[in-house]
Design brief:
single chain, about 210 residues, mainly alpha
């Protein structure tokens, strides 16, 4: 009886190790499938068609009152539309895609309450002038961090949704995010070439 009780923990630990190993293998297989998906021609065509639909809803015409001010605004709108379509194509399976989609919702919420913030800032301007400027604690800590940790922190800031994540999560998300961005560049380059070719063919001969 004692031998059975002693041998049970060993078998349970073996089972838990097998389950962990199986989960890791499944995760690696899913990650590999996601990375291959971004390199496929079919996924690029799907993204291109959705990108065209999103860009058709963006107003690209210059404003007659201030055309110079509209240029950065149009570029920002195109950039946001391309990233939003890329996040939708990822289907929320990654942190960076969910972060892009949630940041879009936060932006709408901020625009909705922008007027209230402007009014409160105007009334509290006299109070804020007497306050002392705050020094960021993260900046003070960042100077004393080793070089590797500083690079990890910078990489976490570059990948959406990975600012406070551990290194394995950042590396996994960065690998998928880079593959998605490469597909985005290929799709947008092909779209720009096609539009420029169509514009040159439709132009009247000199």
């Amino acid at each position: 009886m004692a031998s059975i009780l002693i041998s049970n923990p060993v078998t349970n630990s073996d089972r838990s190790k097998k389950k962990k190993k199986k989960k890791i293998q499944e995760k690696d297989h899913n990650d590999e499938h996601n990375h291959i998906k971004w390199k496929s021609e079919a996924q690029q065509q799907i993204y291109s068609s959705k990108l065209e639909q999103a860009l058709s809803q963006v107003r690209l015409g210059p404003s007659p009152s201030s055309p110079s001010a509209e240029v950065p605004r149009r570029g920002r709108a195109v950039h946001e539309a391309a990233d939003r379509v890329l996040a939708v194509a990822a289907k929320g399976r990654t942190r960076w895609s969910r972060a892009i989609l949630t940041s879009r919702l936060k932006l709408k919420f901020q625009k909705k309450h922008k007027r209230q913030r402007v009014v409160s800032a105007a009334t509290g301007s006299s109070r804020s002038s007497s306050r002392k400027p705050k020094v960021s604690v993260l900046r003070l800590k960042g100077k004393s961090l080793p070089a590797v940790q500083r690079k990890v922190r910078v990489l976490g800031r570059l990948v959406p949704g990975c600012r406070k994540q551990p290194l394995p999560v950042i590396l996994d998300e960065a690998t998928d995010y880079i593959a998605a961005l490469e597909m985005q560049v290929r799709a947008m380059t092909a779209l720009a070439d096609r539009l420029s070719g169509a514009g040159s063919s439709s132009a009247p001969p000199s």
